[in-house]
């Protein structure tokens, strides 16, 4: 089996508003050449789609589901209760660009509502969660799960870590050379 032929990851989100945040999960998977299938499914607005999606995910052979939702974020937990496929939840700080008034664009609790909704699952139906809006981490975590099965992904993850290490060292060298004030000035001007 290959990870680049058929989708092994299902990405779902409660609303099109979430695509602004959730596309970072897709970017992480794309960087590693992992196929994913992306859909909008809402436990609240399309409740009958939940069991259908869970069946679809199992039939397709998805190994991981990444589920993003904001506010009263029931989607990750409800999907998890319909399937044995591991679910990674992404709590989203709602940003609804369909609303004209800035006052109502954001969720009242800045993503904490979604974080708690996703993490506080009852015993017996676990969902893991990344930080608020950290969809890229959900993508990376999915890759780590898949790497148990595909050694090539493990190698790619190690390279990714090395790159991260090098990029921090490069910035540190520059900070040392310029001094913090000039470094920060330069960085904030970007
Ligand atoms: P709209 O911008 O469409 O009003 O959505 C979505 O994830 C989104 O962040 C606002 C927020 O509602 C969330 N939503 C859920 C669910 N369905 C939609 N949390 C669900 O089933 O959990």
Automatic annotation (TrEMBL):
Keywords: Isomerase, Lyase, Purine biosynthesis. Pathway: Purine metabolism; IMP biosynthesis via de novo pathway; 5-amino-1-(5-phospho-D-ribosyl)imidazole-4-carboxylate from 5-amino-1-(5-phospho-D-ribosyl)imidazole (N5-CAIR route): step 2/2. Residues 7-168 form the PurE domain. GO terms for biological process: 'de novo' IMP biosynthetic process. Substrate binds at residues 15, 18, 45. It is an enzyme of class 5 (isomerase). It catalyses: 5-carboxyamino-1-(5-phospho-D-ribosyl)imidazole + H(+) = 5-amino-1-(5-phospho-D-ribosyl)imidazole-4-carboxylate. SMART domains: AIRC (SM01001). It comes from the Archaea. One of its GO terms (molecular function) is lyase activity. InterPro entries: PurE_ClassI (IPR033747), PurE_dom (IPR000031), PurE_prokaryotes (IPR024694). It holds the Pfam family AIRC. Catalyzes the conversion of N5-carboxyaminoimidazole ribonucleotide (N5-CAIR) to 4-carboxy-5-aminoimidazole ribonucleotide (CAIR). This is N5-carboxyaminoimidazole ribonucleotide mutase. The gene is purE.
């Amino acid at each position: 089996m290959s990870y680049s032929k058929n989708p092994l990851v299902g990405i779902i989100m409660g609303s099109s508003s979430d695509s602004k945040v959730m596309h970072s999960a897709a970017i992480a998977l794309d960087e590693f050449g992992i196929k994913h299938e992306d859909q909008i499914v809402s436990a609240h607005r399309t409740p009958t789609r939940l069991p259908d999606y869970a069946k679809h995910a199992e039939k397709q052979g998805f190994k991981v589901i990444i589920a993003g939702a904001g506010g009263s974020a029931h989607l990750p937990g409800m999907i998890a209760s319909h399937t044995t496929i591991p679910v990674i939840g992404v709590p989203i700080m709602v940003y609804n660009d369909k609303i004209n008034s800035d006052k109502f664009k954001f969720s009242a609790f800045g993503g904490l509502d979604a974080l708690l909704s996703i993490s506080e699952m009852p015993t017996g139906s676990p969902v893991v969660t990344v930080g608020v809006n950290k969809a890229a981490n959900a993508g990376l975590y999915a890759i780590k799960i898949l790497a148990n099965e595909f050694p090539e992904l493990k190698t790619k993850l190690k390279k990714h870590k090395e790159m991260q290490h090098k990029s921090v060292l490069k910035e540190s060298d520059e900070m040392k050379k310029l001094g913090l004030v000039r470094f920060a000035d330069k960085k904030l001007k970007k």
